[in-house]
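Technical note accompanying the year-one report. For the benefit of new consortium partners, we illustrate the data format agreed upon in the data management plan: each record pairs a sequence with a structure-token string. No post-processing was applied to the example shown here.
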Amino acid sequence: MQQNRVQLRLLIIAGFVALWMGAVFARLGFLQLIEHGDYLARAHRQQQRTIEITPKRGAIYDRNMHPLAMSTEVESAFAIPTELGENKVLAAHLLSGVLNVPSDVLETKFNSGATFVWVSRKLSPDKSDAVKALNLKGVYTMKENERFYPKRDMAAHILGYVDLDEKGQGGIEHQLDKQIGGKGEKILVMADAKQRWFDGGQAHRDEGANVVLTIDEKIQYVAERELQAGIARTHAIAGTVIIQNPNTGEILALANWPKFNPNSPGEVKPEARMNRAVSAIYEPGSTFKLITLAAALDQNLTRPGEVFERRRLHQNRAPARGPKILRLHSRLRIRPANRRRAPLGK
């Protein structure tokens, strides 16, 4: 009788153990087989951040392969607010001192609830070193690309400029933005079990294409120098110089005044960034006679020294008698151009 009771108890315990193990295995199977995708997605969201940064733009050269625009590597600072914890105010105060960014702006970013925030982008080497020297937990740096124009304001209206995200905003930078800009570049940032973030490597890189212009750097320099001298002499508000190869149509120089530095385009008024050589509308007037005369000479329809009559029609409106048409006759002589002026007739 006693032995039967012991066996019954063992069977009950074994049944509970088997039931418990069955429940555990069922739960494990449910999590690993059915809920696997959901939990994997949660883990990726918590452990990985894919940050899209500006791709490296292609360089722009003059006809002799002198660089006019290029992209250089710089560092940007970012923060993981969850790592800052209770030190958000202190971190904002310390970063404000080295980056010249208002501390309240940084505090707002840190308390926004985002898991990733930019602290300051495209830092100078001094500021980048200062951020690293603070050694703040939750504040890191990563490499980005920044557009640089080594000739400063030379050919600025031709080249254009880019914004903070390396998007072309004028000139060749805007016109050929898709070719020069390349495709987006992404950085994978990962976290360990203690939520410490580190660079997980570059997931994609596709640099933009280089562009070679017909502009000649030396001719461009001379054109801008002479235009500036003419502006100073005449006190004009604006001016334009275009130098073209008449045999091929290539633009060798295109200068505008006022000028601007594409490294800091925001420091000037929008009208200073206007390329008047291609955007402004001008009345050609008598200057178009050169085109007509050149076409006539090219087709052998006339020759230097030839005299021909010119007729002009004028209307003289008289209210009582109606319009009266007067025919005026004069003679024109084709004369060769000289060094100072190119008269088309007299």
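Partners are asked to follow this layout when depositing records. The chain has a mean pLDDT of 80.
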